[in-house]
Description:
The chain has a five-stranded antiparallel β-sheet, with no helix packed on it. It has a three-stranded antiparallel β-sheet with strand order 1-2-3, with no helix packed on it. It has a three-stranded antiparallel β-sheet with strand order 5-6-9, with no helix packed on it. It folds into three domains: 51 residues; 40 residues, no CATH class; 83 residues, Immunoglobulin-like (Sandwich), CATH 2.60.40. Strand 1 and strand 2 form a beta hairpin. By secondary structure, it is an alpha+beta fold. 27% of the residues lie in helices and 44% in strands.
Amino acid sequence: MVLGAFKLLAVKSEIMNKLRKFHAKFVKNLCVVKKHIFSLLILFFSSVLNAQEVVSTQGDSFYNGTGSIDFTLGEVIISTETDGTNTITQGFHLGVVDFATEHEVVIFPNPASDWVFIRFKAFENVTYTLYNAQGKLVKQDILTATQTPIQISQLAPGAYLLHLKNNIENLQTIKIAILH
């Protein structure tokens, strides 16, 4: 009977040791899981806090004693510079900016690789200028027909702004993508 009790105590001791090891491993893994969850939450909230900023081309702001609200239609900001007094922001509009809506312009294909075509019925005295993403003028000429081809195969891939104007007014600025 005494031998049985010793065996029972040995088994109980072995079970308790296994439970302690399991508990220690469980707590350690739980800490690792908590760290991963915490890291994911930090990543999520930091990405929410660093959402895209917009330069307002249309919109308004309203203020009162308890708060403010802003709404805009505009451009995604790519850079902001300040000297402490003045702030300058730069961005790209995602689409067409209509300066004169009575002029219908069709740019195709977009994205393009070798040639892009400008279809514009009122092409007389219209100049096009093509700017790269840094704002550098890369190509300029006049429209020669209702459908004018522009060779772009020599230009680097990327986003470009195609600006159309006549002698009197700015007509349209259109974003085009060049792929090779």
